[in-house]
């Protein structure tokens, strides 16, 4: 029988995106065999997670106060909000340096097969934010070119339709220079730049 600590760790690792039970078990044993300083370092990093914040406007994870540095940055273009699935997509876009607007982190994608999935995302928050911020003129749906990304884009367009009608809010998607199945997180700078420039 496996020690309880291994079981517990395996259960935690199994919750990570893309990690199956076998891989989770391998991680648990790896930590059990690792140097004490490695385990100590992990504990410390996990403790420090308590101090990270979720921005009340864009829902990005950041280190500071209620609003993240990007939401506070007056030099950024307030007329654009890029809707992305997750924090790592934001990282990819921001690192590429090809975008100067604001963001909204959805917190996942909507699955046609999971009726509950939409309720877990920050859709109401997106609607409320766009409604409140009159400076917003364009919503860029920067989602992956996967079936779920497509489905989510259509869903969001529908939700925001009343606003786009009343306010002439433009809704765009990344240009289809993106090959089918392309996940935003893994795009290189050039591809992302082209996709942004060719958005429609
Ligand atoms: Zn923010």
TrEMBL record:
Residue span(s) of domain Toprim: 79-179
Keyword Zinc-finger assigned: yes
Entry-linked Gene3D superfamilies: 3.40.1360.10, RecR Domain 1
GO molecular function: DNA binding; zinc ion binding
SMART domains tied to this protein: TOPRIM
Superkingdom of origin organism: Bacteria
Alphabetical keyword list: DNA damage, DNA recombination, DNA repair, Metal-binding, Zinc, Zinc-finger
GO biological process, one term: DNA repair
Function, as annotated: May play a role in DNA repair. It seems to be involved in an RecBC-independent recombinational process of DNA repair. It may act with RecF and RecO.
Similarity-based family: Belongs to the RecR family.
Name the UniProt record assigns to this protein: Recombination protein RecR
